[in-house]
Amino acid sequence: MRHLNTIVATAIASAILIPSVPSQAESNAWLSFRGDGSSSASSGPEVLDTTDQGNLVWSTTMPGRSVAAPIVIGGLVVSTSAEGPDEPNLFVTGLDVETGKVRWQQSFRATGRPFHHPTSSGAAPTPASDGNRIVAFYSSNDLVCLDLDGNLVWYRGLGSDYPKAGNDVGMASSPVIVDGAVIVQVECQGDSFAAAIELETGKNRWRISRPAASNWASPAVITRPNGSQEVILQSGSDLVAVDPANGTELWRMDEPRASIPSATKGSGMLLVPGSDLMALRIGEGTGKPEVVWQESKLSPKNACVAIAGDRAYVLKGSVLIAASVESGETIWQQRLSGLGGTWASPVVAGDRIYIFDQSGVGLVVQDKGDEAEVVSTVELGDGVLGSPAIADGKLFIRSQTKMFCFE
Question: Could you say which residues form the signal peptide (predicted)?
Answer without folding.
Answer: 1-25
